[in-house]
Amino acid sequence: MSTAMERIQDEIGERFGDAGPSTGEQVLWKAMTLGSGVLAALVARRVVGAIWTRIKGADEPTDPADRNTSWTNAIQWAVASGVGAGVARVLAQRAAARAWESATGATPPAGGAESALER
Prior knowledge:
Elements: H1 4-16, H2 23-56, H3 71-104, H4 113-118
Helix pairs in contact: 2-3
């Protein structure tokens, strides 16, 4: 007769297979995707700001919600920074996955930091 813990382990093994990622791998992957995402956001902010300054000839709006910032500039900044953040996120996720595969020889575990934040 098996214990409850053995039955649970058997059920997990049947559902997910024995070759699934360990908890340590999942934690490492989440830390890796979180770190690459934060770095990408910082870089994207600087790049979008530099492009804004070059195109507009003025610094980006420091507070787009400020009444002294025109609606046009506020909306343009929101679009530019949103696109920059989205592109940076995709690039960071792909770079993290490539680095993981290079280091481990396996695909990354499912559910990185971005999926944990979406829950």
